[in-house]
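Can't paste images in this forum, so I'm doing it all in text. The chain is below; anyone willing to post the predicted structure tokens underneath?
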Amino acid sequence: MHVKNGDKVVVISGKDIGKTGKVLKSIPKENKVVVEGVNMLTKHKKNMGPTSPGGIVNYEGPINASKVMYYCENDKKGVRTGSTILKDGSKKRVCKKCGEVLDK
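Text version of the structure:
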């Protein structure tokens, strides 16, 4: 996958187009990601005693990873990512627009 947990991404299609947020969870087997504040779902929870009260709970649902792009702070927009091998021999992700190394 082109995005990892903790990456800041921007949604490029769907009902939440243009929203930015942090990747909370990535699901590589299903090619999906959970982004904070995007694809908000509502669940009606039943009361299960004094420790877990019932009510309406809002939470983020997964969306397809192809609907998000990495958000570059330098360019202030979504960018494609590539990979390169650095001089020390390590393979890192880089921004295709500005060339900045994304993995520190």
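Strands lie at 8-11, 20-27, 32-35, 40-45, 55-60, 63-64, 68-72, 77-79, 81-85, 91-95. The first strand starts at residue 8 and ends at 11.
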